Amino acid sequence: MIISLITLSQNCGHDYLLQAKGDNYKSNYQFIYDITTERHPININTYYIPVVFHVVYNNDSQNIADSVLYSQIEVLNEDYRRLNENSSETRDEFLEFAGDSNIEFFLANIDPDGNPTNGIIHQFTDRDEFLMFEDIFSNEITLDEVKSSTNGGSDAWDTSRYLNIWVCNIGTLELFGQELGQVFGYAYPPTNIDEALSNLETAPDWPIDMLTNDEALQGVVLHYTAIGRNNPNANEDNLIENNLGRAAVHEVGHFLGLRHIWGDAITLIGEDGCNVDDGIQDTPNANDQAGYVCDFNKNTCTGDTFGSSGEDLPDMVENYMDYSPDACLNIFTNGQINIMQNVLEIARPNLINTQPEISSTQTIVAEKSKNKEIIKQVDILGRDSNQGFNINIYSNGSIEKVYQLVD
Questions:
Q1: Is the domain of 166 the same as that of 206?
Q2: What is the DSSP pairing of strand 399-404 with strand 388-394?
């Protein structure tokens, strides 16, 4: 953990999450990941995801303007729909793998109580910063305190129905007075789909004994300098490679189940990154992360000869899930898209909206989902169905989106 911190001046907290939680956490996460790679999602035109920003600030610089948050939504939509201006810079050997995820994001228009909202919360805190870890040798993620008003943060909205994104001052990590690096964000991978599978006799034994069992912790946390592409405070961290809003693109990728492109190997402590994979077939192996250098000549692993070229493929440093400068990033692969769509359908189905808005009826009905008995199950076209992505209709008038697996 310390070595990876020292070698990076800017980084993603997902590394530290996996390392701090140990082998059990990683094996459970791997089990989930393996299932989603083997399943093909249903055909949904567009997955619309409502977003709520929690801007937790101590001073004016940290109190990010709404216009910056609007730009962040634009960046997310451009990159996830492959409408980004630099999509033309994807190298020829990778074009056949590049895809449009059909995932879009919108600022929530209805809050959990059914009231109109702009999807943005500005919450003052008396805390100067929030630390990833209180102690570098600890395995407790203290940055989660930003998600609680009792700890000086902002309470999550229903994380099963909203993508919560907290924006705050993430303190730099230190060891014996020496700065080790700036974490620009982190997100927990999805784990809790036990409710969607609870009525099935033959279903994956999805692990539930992980940190993300606390629903209030689901979501993304971002450093205030890394949000948006028009952030007037972007250079307050003295780093210029993360000013285009792609820290959020990267972290939302983790939230939707993606791992780093190099498979999270730590080569400096003896791991051979060429033998550690992200589990996705159309991303070439890499021995290590890109190091925030857009080096198109980098090819740290041999034998990646898949694809039509028949040649050994270089490291995909332009992939959103590598550590490259924002200006370099331009691609999600079809394999990564398959993971994200599956995770939405299986692990986060209630995030999916069929249009870029939340209806007030939908919100009210969702609050009635207790003490219910299912009376009808239909697919998204209203046909009776017992498999795939369905809508359950309950005796109390509530509805729920679920993914139904059959043997």
A1: yes
A2: antiparallel
Confidence grade of residue 268 (pLDDT, cut at 50, 70, 90):
low
Residue 373's pLDDT band (boundaries 50, 70, 90)?
low
Q: Which domain holds residue 326?
A: 2-350
Catalytically annotated residue among 104, 134, 236, 251: 251
| 3-class state of residue 77 by DSSP | helix
CB 79 within 8 A of CB 71: no
Same domain, residue pair 277 and 335: yes
SS3 at position 214: coil
- The three-state secondary structure class of 124 is strand
In this prediction, residue 194 carries a pLDDT of: 41
Candidates 50, 119, 71, 67; CA nearest to 357 is: 50
pLDDT digits (tens, 9 = 90+) for 50-77: 999 999 999 999 999 999 999 999 999 9
Q: Tell whether 316 and 382 lie within a shared domain.
A: no
Question: 106: helix, coil or strand?
Answer: strand
Structural domains counted in the chain: 2
Residue 276 shares a structural domain with residue 165:
yes
Averaged pLDDT for residues 2-23: 44
Per-residue confidence at 365, pLDDT binned at 50, 70, 90?
very low
Residues 248 and 397 in one domain: no
One domain, residues 186 and 78: yes
Name the average pLDDT for the chain. 80
Single-letter amino acid, residue 254 = H
Banded pLDDT at 238 (limits 50, 70, 90): confident
From residue 407, alpha-carbon distances to 33, 35, 71, 200 in Å are 19, 14, 44, 9
174 counts as catalytic: no
User: What tens digit of pLDDT does each residue of 170-210 get?
Assistant: 988 766 566 667 889 988 877 654 443 333 232 223 233 33
**3-class DSSP state of 48:** strand
What is the rounded distance in angstroms from the CA atom of residue 269 to the CA atom of residue 271?
6
Provide the 10 A C-beta neighbour count for residue 129. Answer: 15
Residue 360 within a domain: no
Question: What's the DSSP call for residue 116?
Answer: B
d(CA 247, CA 320): 9
Contacts of 392 by beta carbon, 8 Å cutoff, 6+ apart? 374, 376, 377, 399, 400, 401, 402
